Amino acid sequence: MMRNSGHFNLVAVSLILLLVISVVLGILFTGPLGLAIGLAIALVKATLVAVFFMHLAWENAATRLFALGGILMLALLIGGTLGDYFTRG
Amino acid sequence: MIEPPIAHQFETAAQQRDSAITGMWVFLATEVLFFGGLFTAYTVYRVLYPHAFAQASEHLYLWLGAVNTALLLTSSWTMVRAVQCMHDGASSKAARFLLATAGLGGTFLLIKAVEYYLDYRDGLIPGSAFHAHEFADPGRVQLFFVLYLIMTGLHALHMVVGIGLILTLAWLLRTPGSQHLGNHVEATGLYWHFVDVVWIFLFPLFYLAR
């Protein structure tokens, strides 16, 4: 896949559209479902930024490994902490 | 593209570029965990006190948060265009995109400052001036606002650093023959996009948690 302005413009427009969808759904849905929808859209937006704007689509394996490593460590941190908090008697 | 001078520890310009970029990603991995502790604290207390967090979230200015998100997303686009211009050897055009990025970031901070003032006026700042009588569970609601202020504050600090780096690069690019700063612009771009990604998650966690 080549990088050109067209791709980046398309990603930028998608990001703004996702933001609008996120705000509308955030007003319509409240509670845990509303937050879950908001976070799911955030995950899509963050992935678009990381893969295209941060060039991960074109980087070598070592660089991608560090990007994934940070996320993995964060998942361990949050998962481990929640596992502790919610298994206490 | 105009190749940068190759430092003596590198064999090729490509190797030098990969070292700079992978190095920035290593730093960003540590930044993920730097913010990660706060995201973990948020997650634990959101699970423990869902009602207090939902009630607190309704008091934030959703529209200011949404406008700020749009500004940051747009600034990531101007940043990526600056990197692309450097790659094409158009350094003065890159400098203009960098200035646009810094301008959008500055506007974000201005709106955030106004928002903090409005939050203060609404009595949402934890402490003796907190409007505790408005909430059924003031202690837990204050916990939400403590996390809100620390996390958005730490994010704003990162923005100040990013704007400083971007303005410095834009200044350096004014001089002719500065096309070799491509790696600098690209690495700074990664940092800027990372700060954008942090906000992408802060937005639903605070403004859409109702």
Describe the structure.
In chain A, helix 1 (5-28) runs antiparallel to helix 2. Chain A is mainly α. Chain A has helices spanning 5-28, 31-53, 61-85. Chain B is mainly alpha-helical and 210 residues long. In chain B, 77% of the residues lie in helices and 0% in strands. Chain B has helices at residues 13-48, 50-57, 62-87, 91-121, 138-172, 182-207. The longest helix of chain B is centred in the N-terminal third of the chain and has 36 residues, at 13-48. The model of chain B has no long low-confidence stretch (mean pLDDT 95).
Chain-wise SSE layout:
The complex is a heterodimer of chains A (89) and B (210).
Chain A: H1 5-28, H2 31-53, H3 61-85
Helix pairs in contact in A: 1-2
Chain B: H1 13-48, H2 50-57, H3 62-87, H4 91-121, H5 138-172, H6 182-207
Helix pairs in contact in B: 1-5, 1-6, 2-5, 3-4, 3-6, 4-5, 5-6
Features:
heterodimer, A: 89 residues, mainly alpha, B: 210 residues, 0% strand
What does this entry show, briefly?
The complex is a heterodimer of chains A (89) and B (210). By secondary structure, chain A is an all-alpha fold. Chain A has helices at 5-28, 31-53, 61-85.
Structural class of chain B: mainly alpha
Query: What is the string of SSEs of chain B from the N terminus onward?
Result: HHHHHH
For the residues shown, what is the average pLDDT of chain B?
Answer: 95
Order of secondary-structure elements of chain A: HHH
Outline of chain B: elongated
Radius of gyration of chain A: 17 Å
Main sheet of chain A, how many strands, which sense, barrel? none
Overall average residue pLDDT of chain A: 93
* Number of extended strands of chain B: 0
Low-confidence stretches of chain B: none
Individual helix count of chain A:
3
Query: Overall 3D geometry of chain A?
Result: flat
Radius of gyration of chain B: 20 Å
The class by helix and strand makeup of chain A works out as: mainly alpha
